[in-house]
Amino acid sequence: MSNSQPSQVVTFGDRRRSAPSEGQADLSPWDVLRGLWARKEVIALVFAAAMALCLVWLATTTPIYTAETRLLLAPRTGEISNFDDKSQPRLPDDETMQSEIQLITSRPLIEKLIRDLRLDRVPAYNPALRSPGMFSFLGENRNDATDLDQVVDNVLANLSVYRKERSRVLAIGFSSGDAKLAAQVPNKLAEIYVGQQIADRENLNREATKWLAGQIEQLRAKVQESEAKVEAFRTKSGLFITNGSTLPRQQLTDLNSQLTVAESDQAAARAKLQNAQSLLASGGQVESAIDVLQSPLIQQLRQQEVRLKAEIAQLSETLLPTHPRMRQMQANLADLESQIRVEVRKIVEALRNEARVADARVASLRSSLARLKQRMGQLNQDEVTLRSLERDAASNRKLLEDFLQRYQQANARAEADARTANARIVSMAQTPAAPSYPNTASSITFSVVASLILAIMVAFLMEVFSAGFRSGEEAERITGMPFLGLVPELPGSGKKSPPAAHVMREPFDLYSEAIRALQGNVLLARVGESRARTVLVTSAHAGEGKTSTAASLARVFSMGGYRTIVVDADLRAPGIHDAMGLAAQHGLSDLLMGRVRFEHVIRQDIMSPAHVIQAGSPVANPTAAIASSQMLWVLNALRQTYDIVIVDSPAALAAADAQVLSKMTDVTVLSVRWASTSRRVVARVLKMLSAASSRRVGVLLTRVDMRRYRRYSETGLESYPARPVTPQSAPRPAGRRASAGNTGERPIRQAAE
Question: What's the predicted TM-score (pTM) here?
Answer without folding.
Answer: 0.51
